[in-house]
Amino acid sequence: MFAFKKFITPFLLPPGIFIAILIFSGLLFLRKSRKAGILNILIGISLWGLSVGPVSDALMKGLENNLTLPADPRGDVLILLGGGVYDGVRDLTGVGAPSEDTLARIVTVARLQKRLQVPVIVSGGAVFSWRKAEAPVDKRFLMDLGVPGGKILVEDRSRDTLENARYVKEICEKHHFKHPLLITSAYHMKRALVSFREFNMETTPVPCNFKTWDRKYGWADYLPGDLRISMVACREYVGLLYLKAVSTF
Fold it and tell me: Is 80 exceeded by the pLDDT of residue 120?
């Protein structure tokens, strides 16, 4: 019964229930419309594939491979790239809270700043006009973790990684920072490095929040699961293609 429960539950919850509906309806449509039936089945199988651990891990590993943590990171400024906030959420010290990915980046920066005692540039604006800028929220959390407010420089105009690089470079030039350490999630680091190089800015990468590791898979890992990891990975690949196209023109 335990194995049966573990097998059937993923098909009762999203995205598994939609996958089951697509495949089952596709089999029924085969009698009336072969093309519609095959299309439904292919969509269902594709969603199933993207939702299983081995596939999402493979997509992520393509982004996280060849990234290592520096054994003894040294620099004159830390650059924190935001990864999203819940800007309407109330917490103990105000409104707005970092997303899970951003929180991992904040903790890494707080630990590094305590060790190196250098300034921090917090980069992240409002992607859309009806949202709040991210950088002030991240600054508040850094201060709660012990980073002095006077050591934090806020960049709250950027809407994407390319603009992060553009506006952070302006701050570095203004304050004469020469050896920045770049902190972001491991899956985002490749796109971040390419973006900063677009503005002729070399940084030392300090990846955090790795999503993948060497692990064995069992039958349960091939049942429908979470699409979010694959979605995040695909977004990064699209972003890298966009940067390649921009640099070409």
Answer: yes
